[in-house]
Protein backbone atom coordinates (compact mmCIF):
# COMPACT_ATOMS: atom_id res chain seq x y z
CA UNK A 1 0.00 0.00 0.00
CA UNK A 2 1.45 3.45 -0.89
CA UNK A 3 2.32 5.80 1.93
CA UNK A 4 -0.58 7.94 3.13
CA UNK A 5 -0.16 11.61 2.36
CA UNK A 6 -1.26 13.79 5.25
CA UNK A 7 -3.03 17.02 4.48
CA UNK A 8 -2.16 20.16 6.39
CA UNK A 9 -3.38 23.72 6.51
CA UNK A 10 -2.48 26.86 8.46
CA UNK A 11 -4.57 27.91 11.44
CA UNK A 12 -5.04 31.21 13.19
CA UNK A 13 -2.11 32.30 15.29
CA UNK A 14 -2.36 31.74 19.02
CA UNK A 15 -2.95 35.07 20.80
CA UNK A 16 -0.60 33.89 23.57
CA UNK A 17 2.35 32.57 21.59
CA UNK A 18 2.02 34.16 18.18
CA UNK A 19 2.61 30.74 16.60
CA UNK A 20 0.15 29.31 14.11
CA UNK A 21 -0.32 25.63 14.85
CA UNK A 22 -0.07 23.28 11.88
CA UNK A 23 -3.33 21.46 11.25
CA UNK A 24 -3.35 17.97 9.78
CA UNK A 25 -6.48 16.50 8.26
CA UNK A 26 -7.08 12.76 8.49
CA UNK A 27 -9.95 10.38 7.87
CA UNK A 28 -9.68 8.53 11.20
CA UNK A 29 -7.72 9.51 14.29
CA UNK A 30 -7.44 6.84 16.99
CA UNK A 31 -6.31 7.95 20.44
CA UNK A 32 -4.69 4.95 22.14
CA UNK A 33 -2.52 2.17 20.75
CA UNK A 34 -3.67 -0.72 22.92
CA UNK A 35 -5.37 -3.82 21.50
CA UNK A 36 -8.66 -2.05 20.71
CA UNK A 37 -6.99 0.88 18.95
CA UNK A 38 -4.54 -1.34 17.07
CA UNK A 39 -7.27 -3.80 15.99
CA UNK A 40 -9.45 -0.95 14.74
CA UNK A 41 -6.52 0.53 12.82
CA UNK A 42 -5.81 -2.84 11.19
CA UNK A 43 -9.42 -3.26 10.09
CA UNK A 44 -9.81 0.26 8.68
CA UNK A 45 -6.40 0.38 7.00
CA UNK A 46 -7.16 -2.89 5.23
CA UNK A 47 -10.23 -1.18 3.79
CA UNK A 48 -8.07 1.59 2.40
CA UNK A 49 -8.91 4.24 4.99
CA UNK A 50 -6.47 6.94 6.08
CA UNK A 51 -5.76 6.05 9.72
CA UNK A 52 -3.52 7.69 12.32
CA UNK A 53 -2.95 6.09 15.74
CA UNK A 54 -1.59 8.19 18.62
CA UNK A 55 -0.04 6.31 21.55
CA UNK A 56 1.22 8.32 24.51
CA UNK A 57 3.94 5.84 25.62
CA UNK A 58 7.12 6.03 23.52
CA UNK A 59 7.77 2.34 24.15
CA UNK A 60 5.69 -0.44 25.67
CA UNK A 61 5.61 -0.56 29.45
CA UNK A 62 3.70 -2.69 31.92
CA UNK A 63 0.46 -1.07 33.03
CA UNK A 64 -2.66 -2.29 34.79
CA UNK A 65 -4.31 -4.51 32.20
CA UNK A 66 -5.83 -7.96 31.83
CA UNK A 67 -3.98 -11.05 30.66
CA UNK A 68 -6.44 -13.91 31.27
CA UNK A 69 -8.95 -14.47 28.48
CA UNK A 70 -11.14 -17.08 26.83
CA UNK A 71 -10.72 -19.08 23.58
CA UNK A 72 -12.69 -16.57 21.52
CA UNK A 73 -9.92 -14.04 22.01
CA UNK A 74 -7.42 -16.38 20.36
CA UNK A 75 -9.78 -16.72 17.38
CA UNK A 76 -10.16 -12.93 17.21
CA UNK A 77 -6.37 -12.51 17.15
CA UNK A 78 -6.15 -15.02 14.32
CA UNK A 79 -8.73 -13.02 12.35
CA UNK A 80 -6.54 -9.94 12.78
CA UNK A 81 -3.75 -11.82 11.02
CA UNK A 82 -1.62 -13.27 13.82
CA UNK A 83 -0.15 -16.59 12.71
CA UNK A 84 -0.23 -19.75 14.82
CA UNK A 85 3.45 -19.22 15.61
CA UNK A 86 2.84 -15.63 16.73
CA UNK A 87 -0.14 -16.64 18.86
CA UNK A 88 1.97 -19.36 20.49
CA UNK A 89 4.60 -16.76 21.45
CA UNK A 90 2.07 -14.46 23.17
CA UNK A 91 -0.42 -16.97 24.64
CA UNK A 92 0.01 -19.76 27.18
CA UNK A 93 -2.72 -22.38 27.26
CA UNK A 94 -4.52 -22.73 30.58
CA UNK A 95 -6.68 -25.85 31.06
CA UNK A 96 -9.13 -24.03 33.32
CA UNK A 97 -9.76 -21.17 35.68
CA UNK A 98 -10.11 -22.61 39.18
CA UNK A 99 -12.19 -20.49 41.55
CA UNK A 100 -11.42 -20.95 45.25
CA UNK A 101 -13.49 -19.59 48.15
CA UNK A 102 -12.40 -18.61 51.68
CA UNK A 103 -14.20 -21.68 53.06
CA UNK A 104 -12.26 -24.02 50.77
CA UNK A 105 -14.80 -24.76 48.03
CA UNK A 106 -13.45 -24.99 44.47
CA UNK A 107 -14.87 -25.25 40.96
CA UNK A 108 -13.19 -25.23 37.54
CA UNK A 109 -14.33 -23.24 34.51
CA UNK A 110 -12.99 -25.18 31.50
CA UNK A 111 -14.29 -23.24 28.45
CA UNK A 112 -14.63 -26.41 26.36
CA UNK A 113 -10.86 -27.00 26.28
CA UNK A 114 -9.77 -29.71 23.82
CA UNK A 115 -6.03 -29.26 24.36
CA UNK A 116 -5.42 -26.64 21.64
CA UNK A 117 -4.79 -22.91 21.91
CA UNK A 118 -7.90 -22.23 19.83
CA UNK A 119 -10.15 -23.99 22.39
CA UNK A 120 -8.63 -22.99 25.71
CA UNK A 121 -8.40 -20.09 28.05
CA UNK A 122 -5.00 -18.44 27.80
CA UNK A 123 -2.67 -16.18 29.72
CA UNK A 124 -1.26 -13.48 27.45
CA UNK A 125 2.14 -11.86 27.42
CA UNK A 126 1.07 -8.26 26.89
CA UNK A 127 4.68 -7.12 26.50
CA UNK A 128 4.70 -9.05 23.21
CA UNK A 129 1.05 -8.89 22.17
CA UNK A 130 0.51 -5.13 22.29
CA UNK A 131 3.59 -4.19 20.20
CA UNK A 132 2.77 -7.03 17.79
CA UNK A 133 -0.69 -5.60 17.15
CA UNK A 134 0.71 -2.10 16.61
CA UNK A 135 3.15 -3.51 14.09
CA UNK A 136 0.20 -5.20 12.42
CA UNK A 137 -1.47 -1.80 12.14
CA UNK A 138 1.62 -0.34 10.49
CA UNK A 139 1.87 -3.30 8.12
CA UNK A 140 -1.78 -2.80 7.13
CA UNK A 141 -1.06 0.82 6.17
CA UNK A 142 -1.96 2.83 9.25
CA UNK A 143 0.40 5.47 10.61
CA UNK A 144 1.36 4.98 14.26
CA UNK A 145 2.96 7.75 16.32
CA UNK A 146 4.25 6.77 19.74
CA UNK A 147 5.23 9.09 22.57
CA UNK A 148 2.50 11.60 21.65
CA UNK A 149 0.31 13.23 24.31
CA UNK A 150 -3.10 14.69 23.55
CA UNK A 151 -3.50 18.06 25.27
CA UNK A 152 -7.13 18.63 24.40
CA UNK A 153 -10.06 17.52 22.29
CA UNK A 154 -12.63 19.92 20.87
CA UNK A 155 -15.12 18.26 18.58
CA UNK A 156 -13.14 16.46 15.91
CA UNK A 157 -9.95 18.46 16.47
CA UNK A 158 -7.14 17.37 18.81
CA UNK A 159 -4.27 19.47 20.10
CA UNK A 160 -0.93 17.74 20.67
CA UNK A 161 2.20 18.85 22.47
CA UNK A 162 4.85 19.70 19.91
CA UNK A 163 7.66 21.54 21.65
CA UNK A 164 7.95 24.83 23.53
CA UNK A 165 5.74 27.55 22.10
CA UNK A 166 4.34 25.37 19.31
CA UNK A 167 1.39 23.08 18.89
CA UNK A 168 0.16 20.55 16.39
CA UNK A 169 -3.52 20.15 15.72
CA UNK A 170 -5.17 17.27 13.93
CA UNK A 171 -8.68 17.35 12.59
CA UNK A 172 -10.30 14.09 11.57
CA UNK A 173 -13.54 13.02 10.02
CA UNK A 174 -13.83 10.53 12.89
CA UNK A 175 -12.06 10.67 16.27
CA UNK A 176 -11.93 7.40 18.20
CA UNK A 177 -11.25 7.10 21.92
CA UNK A 178 -9.34 3.86 22.47
CA UNK A 179 -7.52 5.29 25.46
CA UNK A 180 -8.81 3.21 28.35
CA UNK A 181 -10.86 3.83 31.45
CA UNK A 182 -9.65 7.43 31.78
CA UNK A 183 -10.31 8.26 28.15
CA UNK A 184 -9.63 11.89 27.28
CA UNK A 185 -12.07 11.52 24.38
CA UNK A 186 -14.86 10.31 26.69
CA UNK A 187 -14.17 13.08 29.20
CA UNK A 188 -14.10 15.75 26.50
CA UNK A 189 -17.41 14.49 25.16
CA UNK A 190 -18.89 14.61 28.67
CA UNK A 191 -19.97 10.95 28.64
CA UNK A 192 -17.63 9.43 31.28
CA UNK A 193 -19.51 8.07 34.29
CA UNK A 194 -18.64 6.18 37.49
CA UNK A 195 -19.12 2.42 37.50
CA UNK A 196 -22.21 1.06 39.23
CA UNK A 197 -20.03 -1.21 41.38
CA UNK A 198 -18.52 1.60 43.44
CA UNK A 199 -14.86 2.28 44.14
CA UNK A 200 -12.53 -0.69 43.69
CA UNK A 201 -8.76 -0.72 43.39
CA UNK A 202 -6.77 -2.98 41.08
CA UNK A 203 -3.09 -3.90 41.54
CA UNK A 204 -1.21 -5.93 38.92
CA UNK A 205 2.31 -7.27 38.38
CA UNK A 206 4.18 -10.51 37.59
CA UNK A 207 6.25 -12.96 39.61
CA UNK A 208 8.71 -15.56 38.35
CA UNK A 209 7.34 -18.99 37.42
CA UNK A 210 9.68 -21.77 38.64
CA UNK A 211 8.16 -24.34 36.21
CA UNK A 212 7.18 -22.38 33.10
CA UNK A 213 6.71 -25.40 30.83
CA UNK A 214 4.24 -27.16 33.10
CA UNK A 215 0.54 -26.92 32.13
CA UNK A 216 -1.70 -25.88 35.00
CA UNK A 217 -4.85 -24.01 35.86
CA UNK A 218 -5.17 -20.32 36.40
CA UNK A 219 -6.50 -19.57 39.90
CA UNK A 220 -9.05 -17.06 41.13
CA UNK A 221 -8.90 -16.87 44.92
CA UNK A 222 -11.68 -15.04 46.71
CA UNK A 223 -10.95 -13.53 50.12
CA UNK A 224 -12.91 -11.18 52.39
CA UNK A 225 -13.21 -7.86 50.60
CA UNK A 226 -11.52 -8.84 47.34
CA UNK A 227 -10.03 -11.47 45.08
CA UNK A 228 -6.75 -12.27 43.37
CA UNK A 229 -6.25 -13.88 39.97
CA UNK A 230 -3.11 -15.88 39.13
CA UNK A 231 -2.52 -16.54 35.43
CA UNK A 232 0.65 -18.18 34.07
CA UNK A 233 1.86 -16.38 30.92
CA UNK A 234 4.69 -16.94 28.43
CA UNK A 235 8.17 -15.84 29.39
CA UNK A 236 8.42 -17.72 32.67
CA UNK A 237 6.08 -15.49 34.64
CA UNK A 238 2.76 -15.57 36.45
CA UNK A 239 0.52 -12.55 36.25
CA UNK A 240 -1.05 -11.42 39.52
CA UNK A 241 -4.20 -9.31 39.42
CA UNK A 242 -5.60 -8.13 42.76
CA UNK A 243 -8.99 -6.44 43.12
CA UNK A 244 -9.72 -4.77 46.46
CA UNK A 245 -13.10 -3.53 47.63
CA UNK A 246 -13.83 -0.46 49.79
CA UNK A 247 -12.82 -2.23 53.01
CA UNK A 248 -9.22 -2.32 51.79
CA UNK A 249 -9.04 1.30 50.72
CA UNK A 250 -7.94 2.66 54.10
CA UNK A 251 -5.36 -0.10 54.55
CA UNK A 252 -3.94 0.54 51.10
CA UNK A 253 -3.72 4.24 51.83
CA UNK A 254 -1.98 3.64 55.18
CA UNK A 255 0.26 0.71 54.29
CA UNK A 256 1.04 1.45 50.66
CA UNK A 257 0.89 -0.88 47.65
CA UNK A 258 3.90 -3.06 48.52
CA UNK A 259 2.79 -3.96 52.05
CA UNK A 260 -0.78 -4.52 50.89
CA UNK A 261 0.42 -6.82 48.13
CA UNK A 262 2.57 -8.73 50.63
CA UNK A 263 -0.48 -9.29 52.83
CA UNK A 264 -2.50 -10.66 49.90
CA UNK A 265 0.31 -12.91 48.63
CA UNK A 266 1.01 -14.29 52.11
CA UNK A 267 -2.63 -15.39 52.35
CA UNK A 268 -2.69 -17.34 49.06
CA UNK A 269 -3.15 -21.02 49.95
CA UNK A 270 -0.68 -23.52 48.47
CA UNK A 271 -1.91 -25.85 45.72
CA UNK A 272 -0.47 -29.11 44.39
CA UNK A 273 -0.32 -27.79 40.82
CA UNK A 274 1.04 -24.35 41.73
CA UNK A 275 4.82 -24.31 42.26
CA UNK A 276 5.07 -20.65 43.26
CA UNK A 277 5.85 -19.98 46.91
CA UNK A 278 3.56 -17.01 47.36
CA UNK A 279 4.64 -15.96 50.84
CA UNK A 280 7.40 -13.44 50.24
CA UNK A 281 7.16 -13.70 46.42
CA UNK A 282 8.92 -10.77 44.75
CA UNK A 283 7.31 -8.88 41.84
CA UNK A 284 9.52 -8.88 38.76
CA UNK A 285 8.07 -5.67 37.38
CA UNK A 286 6.53 -2.55 38.97
CA UNK A 287 3.24 -2.88 40.82
CA UNK A 288 0.77 -0.96 38.68
CA UNK A 289 -2.54 0.23 40.06
CA UNK A 290 -5.83 1.56 38.83
CA UNK A 291 -8.59 3.23 40.85
CA UNK A 292 -11.43 3.02 40.27
CA UNK A 293 -11.06 0.04 37.97
CA UNK A 294 -14.53 0.28 36.48
CA UNK A 295 -16.28 3.01 34.57
CA UNK A 296 -19.08 3.41 32.06
CA UNK A 297 -19.94 5.72 29.21
CA UNK A 298 -23.33 7.39 28.94
CA UNK A 299 -23.05 6.86 25.21
CA UNK A 300 -20.38 5.49 22.92
CA UNK A 301 -20.76 7.84 19.98
CA UNK A 302 -21.47 11.43 19.04
CA UNK A 303 -21.01 13.72 16.03
CA UNK A 304 -17.81 12.44 14.44
CA UNK A 305 -16.53 10.43 17.43
CA UNK A 306 -16.91 7.07 19.13
CA UNK A 307 -15.37 4.96 21.89
CA UNK A 308 -13.92 1.44 21.73
CA UNK A 309 -12.33 -0.97 24.19
CA UNK A 310 -12.22 -0.02 27.86
CA UNK A 311 -13.01 3.60 26.93
CA UNK A 312 -16.48 2.39 25.95
CA UNK A 313 -17.05 0.92 29.42
CA UNK A 314 -15.31 -1.56 31.71
CA UNK A 315 -17.05 -3.45 34.46
CA UNK A 316 -15.67 -6.69 35.81
CA UNK A 317 -12.16 -8.17 35.81
CA UNK A 318 -13.49 -11.31 37.56
CA UNK A 319 -14.90 -12.71 34.32
CA UNK A 320 -11.77 -12.05 32.25
CA UNK A 321 -13.70 -10.50 29.39
CA UNK A 322 -11.93 -7.18 28.87
CA UNK A 323 -9.63 -8.08 25.99
CA UNK A 324 -12.29 -9.97 24.05
CA UNK A 325 -14.72 -7.09 24.48
CA UNK A 326 -12.05 -4.69 23.21
CA UNK A 327 -11.55 -6.74 20.04
CA UNK A 328 -15.29 -7.13 19.48
CA UNK A 329 -15.79 -3.38 19.83
CA UNK A 330 -13.00 -2.79 17.30
CA UNK A 331 -14.63 -5.17 14.81
CA UNK A 332 -18.05 -3.52 15.15
CA UNK A 333 -16.47 -0.05 14.98
CA UNK A 334 -14.55 -0.96 11.81
CA UNK A 335 -17.79 -1.60 9.95
CA UNK A 336 -19.50 1.47 11.41
CA UNK A 337 -16.67 3.91 10.64
CA UNK A 338 -16.23 2.53 7.14
CA UNK A 339 -19.94 3.05 6.46
CA UNK A 340 -19.82 6.53 8.03
CA UNK A 341 -16.94 7.57 5.80
CA UNK A 342 -18.87 6.15 2.86
CA UNK A 343 -21.77 8.51 3.57
CA UNK A 344 -24.08 6.60 5.93
CA UNK A 345 -25.28 9.24 8.45
CA UNK A 346 -26.61 6.60 10.87
CA UNK A 347 -23.54 4.36 11.03
CA UNK A 348 -22.01 5.66 14.28
CA UNK A 349 -25.34 5.51 16.10
CA UNK A 350 -25.73 1.95 14.82
CA UNK A 351 -22.38 1.10 16.45
CA UNK A 352 -23.65 2.32 19.82
CA UNK A 353 -26.84 0.26 19.49
CA UNK A 354 -24.90 -2.83 18.41
CA UNK A 355 -22.62 -2.57 21.44
CA UNK A 356 -25.56 -2.25 23.82
CA UNK A 357 -27.27 -5.28 22.31
CA UNK A 358 -24.07 -7.32 22.22
CA UNK A 359 -23.11 -6.76 25.87
CA UNK A 360 -26.35 -6.01 27.73
CA UNK A 361 -26.82 -9.57 28.99
CA UNK A 362 -23.14 -10.07 29.81
CA UNK A 363 -23.10 -6.88 31.85
CA UNK A 364 -26.13 -8.13 33.78
CA UNK A 365 -24.34 -11.43 34.47
CA UNK A 366 -21.22 -9.56 35.60
CA UNK A 367 -23.24 -7.40 37.98
CA UNK A 368 -24.91 -10.54 39.33
CA UNK A 369 -21.52 -12.20 39.91
CA UNK A 370 -20.30 -9.11 41.74
CA UNK A 371 -23.46 -9.06 43.87
CA UNK A 372 -22.76 -12.66 44.92
CA UNK A 373 -19.12 -11.81 45.65
CA UNK A 374 -20.35 -9.05 47.95
CA UNK A 375 -22.29 -11.61 50.00
CA UNK A 376 -19.75 -14.26 51.13
CA UNK A 377 -22.36 -16.74 52.39
CA UNK A 378 -24.27 -16.53 49.12
CA UNK A 379 -21.11 -16.90 47.05
CA UNK A 380 -20.06 -19.95 49.09
CA UNK A 381 -23.54 -21.45 48.65
CA UNK A 382 -23.27 -20.95 44.87
CA UNK A 383 -19.70 -22.21 44.64
CA UNK A 384 -20.62 -25.50 46.31
CA UNK A 385 -23.38 -26.06 43.80
CA UNK A 386 -21.17 -25.23 40.83
CA UNK A 387 -18.59 -27.69 42.18
CA UNK A 388 -21.09 -30.58 42.20
CA UNK A 389 -23.39 -29.79 39.25
CA UNK A 390 -21.49 -30.44 36.03
CA UNK A 391 -24.17 -29.24 33.63
CA UNK A 392 -24.69 -25.94 35.44
CA UNK A 393 -20.94 -25.45 35.73
CA UNK A 394 -20.44 -26.09 32.01
CA UNK A 395 -23.06 -23.51 31.09
CA UNK A 396 -21.47 -20.96 33.42
CA UNK A 397 -18.06 -21.68 31.86
CA UNK A 398 -19.37 -21.07 28.34
CA UNK A 399 -21.15 -17.88 29.39
CA UNK A 400 -18.07 -16.52 31.17
CA UNK A 401 -15.95 -17.33 28.11
CA UNK A 402 -18.36 -15.60 25.68
CA UNK A 403 -18.81 -18.94 23.91
CA UNK A 404 -22.63 -18.88 24.22
CA UNK A 405 -25.05 -15.98 24.72
CA UNK A 406 -24.88 -14.60 28.25
CA UNK A 407 -28.67 -14.66 28.37
CA UNK A 408 -28.45 -18.38 29.16
CA UNK A 409 -27.20 -17.54 32.65
CA UNK A 410 -30.23 -15.28 33.16
CA UNK A 411 -32.74 -17.94 32.13
CA UNK A 412 -34.96 -18.77 35.15
CA UNK A 413 -34.41 -22.48 34.48
CA UNK A 414 -30.64 -22.06 34.78
CA UNK A 415 -30.94 -20.01 37.96
CA UNK A 416 -33.29 -22.59 39.44
CA UNK A 417 -30.88 -25.40 38.58
CA UNK A 418 -28.03 -23.46 40.17
CA UNK A 419 -29.77 -22.47 43.42
CA UNK A 420 -32.10 -25.37 44.14
CA UNK A 421 -31.23 -27.41 47.27
Task: Kindly describe this structure.
Strands 1, 2, 3, 9, 10, 11, 12, 20 and 21 form a nine-stranded mixed beta sheet that branches. Helix content is 35%, strand content 26%. It is an alpha+beta fold. Helix 1 packs parallel to helix 7 (322-341), helix 2 (71-79) runs parallel beside helix 7 (322-341) and helix 7 (322-341) packs antiparallel against helix 8 (347-373). The model is unreliable at 1-18 (pLDDT under 50). The chain is globular.
Strand and helix layout:
Layout: E1 7-10, E2 22-31, H1 35-46, E3 51-55, E4 68-69, H2 71-79, H3 84-90, E5 91-94, E6 97-100, E7 106-109, E8 121-124, H4 126-140, E9 143-146, E10 150-154, E11 157-161, E12 167-177, H5 184-189, E13 192-194, E14 201-208, E15 218-223, E16 226-233, E17 237-244, H6 249-266, E18 288-290, E19 295-297, E20 301-302, E21 305-307, E22 313-314, H7 322-341, H8 347-373, H9 376-388, H10 390-400, H11 412-419
Parallel strand pairs: 2-3, 2-12, 3-9, 6-15, 12-21
Antiparallel strand pairs: 1-2, 4-8, 5-8, 6-7, 10-11, 11-12, 13-19, 14-17, 14-18, 15-16, 16-17, 19-22, 20-21
Helix pairs in contact: 1-4, 1-7, 2-7, 7-8
